[in-house]
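Everyone, describe these structure tokens:
***
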Amino acid sequence: MSAAPASPMLFDPRRLLLIAGPCSLENEGICRAVAGVLAELRRECPELNLVFKGSFDKANRTSLAGERGTGLEAGLELLAQVKREHGFPVLTDVHETAQMARVAEVCDVIQIPAFLCRQTDLLLSAAATGRVVNVKKGQFLSPPEMAHVTAKLREGGAREVWQTERGTTFGYQNLVVDMRAFPIMARNGYPTVFDATHAVQLPGAGGGRSSGQREFVPTLALAALAAGADGLFVETHPDPDRAISDGPNMIPLAELPALVRRCLAIWRAARA
């Protein structure tokens, strides 16, 4: 696999990194609605460094009854459309090495899902693309163990690495966020991102699907920025209760701008 041409670093410490978009790409209407709100936020808040995200395949559904999404080619076309129309860098998650080269043709950021963060071949394949790699910390890992994950990417030649905290398994069907994770993971030398919406997920608690507590997203997002997180990952949807995946933990699109403004205020204060 040939690496993408070298380009400037996407992460900018002078701006708050915000990875935002729907959980599943779903369809053109959803993507355009979300991208439109993000474009307005970008105009209003120049301190934001926005990346549009969306998944083409929810490959780890709780049950076979769960919808998986658009599929590879249709999903990449939706991401390419958002990129053309708004100029956003785009991110999607990859579950198999065979998908890597095709995804790298479109996406600026390749995301390694939390459940797969120790899969060496997947990490090395992502590193070899030359794209930014955002790797999520597995729910089963302690923050110090991410040093080994990021080392695989570094030794694999990754040009730029981000590491994302998304909560740790806490008993059955629950997650907890240890705010010490951000200064601990920062020792690895890479930006730390907080996945504010998956952190409030209640895995498998929805009767054959995951549930969630979106009312706690603002609390945790603000706390993470105060604790030193360099960026946020937030999934949003015009009508989360009708989304095909992760509705209970997604932020309603109409509520996103106010949340982002609050987050920017804390981010500024933490760096004063």
Remarks:
- The longest strand covers residues 231-237.
- The radius of gyration is 17 Å.
